C-alpha cells in the first residue's frame, strides 16, 4: 500500500501520481485502470478521494469512464498530452507529430523587467529576471523559438547551472522550486524577422504565455514563435 503524506491535499497527491502514470504510459492508451477499490487500497485513501481524482482526470480528457465497464486511458492521449496541464508542451507536440524532439539553448542570462514584464509578473520594474532563449528542434529542424522570463529571486543556483535543454516545467521545478498549475496563452500572427531568421525563414504564430502557480502567482513569461507550416497546435477541450 502506498501511503500519502500530508504536505499537500490527498486529492492533489493521488492526482499527481495517476497523471504521471498516464503521462509515462505506465497506464498505456486504451488500457483499463485498476478499480476504485484497488486504487483506494494502494494509496491508503477512501473511495470518495479516488472518485474525485478520476472525475478531475475525466474532465481533462485523460481518461474515459464507461458505465458498467470501468475507467480507461483515453486512446487519443497524445492529443490530450500536447496541451496537458493547460499549456502546450512543445517537445511532446513534436514527438506526437512523429519527429525526434530536442532543445538547443541559445542564451541564458540575466536581464531586467520592463514595465510590461513587471505588470505581468506582479513585480517591480527593473527587478532581475532570468532570460532564456531556446530552439525546439524536430529532427534537427528548428520549429519553435521560445523566450522565457523568470524572476531571478526564485532561482536557487547560479544561472550557468541551469540546464536550458529541459522543458520549462522541469526548469521551474528543479531550479526555482515552483510548480506550474496553469498558463494563459495569447495567440497571434507574427512578422518578427529576427525570429523568422532563427526558424530558417519560416514563421507563422506568436504565442505569449503567462505561467501561474496553484495560488495564481505568476511564475514566468513565455514569448514563443511557432512554425505552424511544420507542426500544428492542437487544443483538446473536455466538456464536463
Topology:
Blueprint: H1 10-23, H2 36-43, H3 47-59, E1 63-66, E2 70-73, H4 77-81, H5 90-96, E3 101-112, H6 115-121, E4 128-138, E5 141-151, H7 168-176, E6 182-189, H8 193-198, E7 205-212, E8 218-226
Antiparallel strand pairs: 1-2, 3-4, 4-5, 5-8, 6-7, 7-8
Helix pairs in contact: 1-3, 2-3
Model description:
This protein has 240 residues and is an alpha+beta fold. The chain has two domains: 10-76, Orthogonal Bundle (Arc Repressor Mutant, subunit A), CATH 1.10.10; 84-226, Chorismate lyase (3-Layer(aba) Sandwich). Helices cover 29% and strands 28% of the residues. It has eight helices and eight strands. The chain has helices at 10-23, 36-43, 47-59, 77-81, 90-96, 115-121, 168-176, 193-198; strands at 63-66, 70-73, 101-112, 128-138, 141-151, 182-189, 205-212, 218-226. Strands 3-4-5-8-7-6 form a six-stranded antiparallel sheet. A two-stranded antiparallel ribbon has the order 1-2. Helix 1 packs across helix 3 (47-59) and helix 2 packs across helix 3 (47-59). The longest helix is centred in the N-terminal third of the chain and has 14 residues, at 10-23. The chain is globular and about 55 Å long. The model has no long low-confidence stretch (mean pLDDT 85).
Amino acid at each position: 500500500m502506498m501511503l500519502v503524506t500530508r504536505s499537500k491535499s490527498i486529492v492533489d497527491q493521488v492526482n499527481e501520481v495517476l497523471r504521471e502514470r498516464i503521462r509515462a504510459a505506465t497506464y498505456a492508451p486504451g488500457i483499463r485502470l485498476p478499480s476504485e477499490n484497488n486504487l483506494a487500497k494502494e494509496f491508503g485513501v477512501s473511495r470518495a478521494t479516488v472518485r474525485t481524482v478520476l472525475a478531475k482526470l475525466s474532465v481533462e480528457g485523460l481518461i474515459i469512464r464507461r458505465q458498467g465497464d470501468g475507467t480507461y486511458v483515453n486512446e487519443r492521449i497524445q492529443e490530450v498530452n500536447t496541451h496537458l496541464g493547460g499549456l502546450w508542451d512543445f517537445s511532446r507536440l513534436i514527438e506526437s507529430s512523429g519527429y525526434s524532439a530536442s532543445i538547443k539553448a541559445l542564451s541564458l542570462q540575466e536581464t531586467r523587467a520592463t514595465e510590461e514584464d513587471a505588470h505581468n509578473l506582479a513585480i517591480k520594474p527593473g527587478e532581475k529576471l532570468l532570460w532564456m532563449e531556446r530552439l525546439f528542434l524536430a529532427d534537427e529542424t528548428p520549429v519553435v523559438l521560445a523566450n522565457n522570463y523568470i524572476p531571478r529571486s526564485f532561482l536557487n543556483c547560479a544561472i550557468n547551472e541551469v540546464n536550458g535543454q529541459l522543458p520549462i516545467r522541469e526548469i521551474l521545478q528543479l531550479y526555482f522550486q515552483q510548480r506550474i498549475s496553469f498558463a494563459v496563452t495569447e495567440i497571434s500572427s507574427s512578422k518578427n524577422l529576427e525570429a523568422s531568421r532563427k526558424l530558417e525563414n519560416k514563421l507563422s504564430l506568436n504565442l505569449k504565455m503567462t505561467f501561474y502557480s496553484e495560488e495564481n502567482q505568476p511564475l514566468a513569461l513565455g514569448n514563443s514563435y511557432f512554425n505552424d507550416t511544420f507542426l500544428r497546435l492542437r487544443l483538446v477541450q473536455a466538456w464536463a
